[in-house]
Amino acid sequence: MERMDKNMPFLLKYENVAWYENGKVRILDRRIFPERKFVECECYQEVVKAIADMVTQSAGPYTAVGMGMALAAYQVKDKGAAKQIAFINQAAYDLAHARPTTANRYGQITYHCAEVGKAALESGNDPIQAIVDTTVESLNRRYSTMQIVGNYLCDLIPNNGTILTQCFGETIIGTVIRAAIESGKNFRVFCAETRPYLQGARLTSSCFGEMGFDTTVVTDNMIAYSMQREGIDIFTSAADTIARDGHIANKIGTFQIAILAKYFGIPYYVTGIPDADKISKDDIVIEMRDPSQVLSYRGIKNTIPEVKAIYPSFDVVPPHLISGVVTDKGVYVPYTLNKYFDSEVKKFY
After folding, report:
1. Which of 18, 107, 137, 226 is most buried, with most CB under 10 Å away?
2. CA 267 to CA 265: how far, in whole Å?
3. Measured between alpha carbons, how far is 269 from 261 in angstroms, rounded to an integer?
4. Catalytic residues, which ones?
5. Mean pLDDT of 184-207
6. What DSSP string describes 213-270?
7. What is the DSSP letter of 340?
8. CA pair distance 275, 242, nearest whole angstrom
9. Distance (Å, rounded) from C-alpha 250 to C-alpha 254?
10. 0.90 cut: is pTM over it?
């Protein structure tokens, strides 16, 4: 099977996201990257915990939940078919709900893996390998689909221009890099650091820098300065959820950057595939994470014990702040996203 991670940065190689092998799932610990360490999971429940703990995030869990399903099949490989199927079904639910905001997307992968595993059992084949194979096929579909999105986004970036990114858009980062290199386009990249895990500083900047782009990291409170003085042409981010009414959810901090982009007249392009089952902003669940992650970083306290914190994981950005939603079918005005579903929607995961 041809793989679609060719000419991608280290972070986007399949084995460097999450990988099943010999009864274990190995997940790159993005919380400490660029230090290259992997978390090894010996049961699917540990994969659930790794996703919940943000060992991997952005699109990384799409790979991890698929590989976690293979691990679940391994855990019950010596049991009867009925017990195997029941266990795999439970794993599909648990892995899908590792994080609430994106449970619908994870579920598309895990429930499909469960069906593939059951079909393999019924035909006398190895469900573990079948699930690994279908997960790689899912990766290929996603990378191929997002390459189309990356091509459209690349067309929107002025040659020798400057873009600002938020958080780690994962696949779209890799595909826009590949599109730019193949088309001979060059641009500067400013990466908002993205507190509290610094995904923009550690992950996004690593991908662009590794592939030869002029890359600058700014703290989250330097955005207005950068827009005013550094010639930002476009603000762009992926989205963890894109509702049909044009509202999107993305990493906390995206909303305030979108407001600044509107103030400075800088277009904001969201990338991704709209969610058919998210009709409006009311269908978006905001995950609240452990506030202790705001009060300290890598074990070093930022505050005295009397201070408390909040940690909403995502912002919801209203459509009037979004210039366009870049999809595999082209660029949509956010208010017209329902039209995306007027024609056939290709399977994404």
Report:
1. 18
2. 6
3. 11
4. 240
5. 96
6. --EEEE-GGGHHHHHHHS---EEEEE-SEE-TTS-EEEETTHHHHHHHHHHHT--EEE
7. G
8. 6
9. 6
10. yes
